[in-house]
Amino acid sequence: xxxxxxxxxxxxxxxxxxxxxxxxxxxxxxxxxxxxxxxxxxxxxxxxxxxxxxxxxxxxxxxxxxxxxxxxxxxxxxxxxxxxxxxxxxxxxxxxxxxxxxxxxxxxxxxxxxxxxxxxxxxxxxxxxxxxxxxxxxxxxxxxxxxxxxxxxxxxxxxxxxxxxxxxxxxxxxxxxxxxxxxxxxxxxxxxxxxxxxxxxxxxxxxxxxxxxxxxxxxxxxxxxxxxxxxxxxxxxxxxxxxxxxxxx
Length: 249
Hints:
Blueprint: E1 5-13, H1 20-28, E2 44-51, E3 54-61, H2 67-75, E4 82-87, H3 90-99, E5 104-110, E6 113-118, H4 120-123, E7 127-133, E8 159-169, H5 172-183, E9 191-194, E10 197-203, E11 208-216, H6 219-228, E12 233-234, E13 237-240, E14 243-248
Parallel strand pairs: 1-3, 4-7, 8-10, 11-14
Antiparallel strand pairs: 1-4, 2-3, 5-6, 6-7, 8-11, 9-10, 12-13, 13-14
């Protein structure tokens, strides 16, 4: 199978799902496509909202001692939790990462889906996951983590695409090169370009996934909706679920 690497999903973490899910839905004009009962074994509940063919997920711990709960405590609720990529062979990609000293944290198989999660301490800034769904090289094909009918929940009246993920580090160039080696895409300065999105690495105090950029139909309308939901709005961005949502047209 030919090699490929696409952004499939971004996962954020919140102390509780509400009001975060309602806020994202109302501000960005997105619909929940699925709530995955399989995450309960990790002490989590979740909701997923499709942004075109990229899924935006929020997880929240419902019991103490979860990895997501520890992440919230460590970061003070700042930063995205996980960058999830679909590829041709998660095990081979994971093995290459292991050879770099990046440990595997978890392997998930819910046929026809298979995922390999790498340790966030070794990835730095966030979890990286590689996954593949058998028989689904069509980006609009089956993707079990998003439920059986996720495609029917895609809305494009307000939000058109998730175009960029911002990563922050005291050494953005070094982090860009590190992530580039892990996911197999050479860094151009402080940027990693995937077929369906871009990761941009910027200077900051901590290593975190700090922002998401969305292409929207009407920037003013989205920013007014964010203000109405009580989000802190500055320029063309607002703070929600520990990251900055930036909107462009």
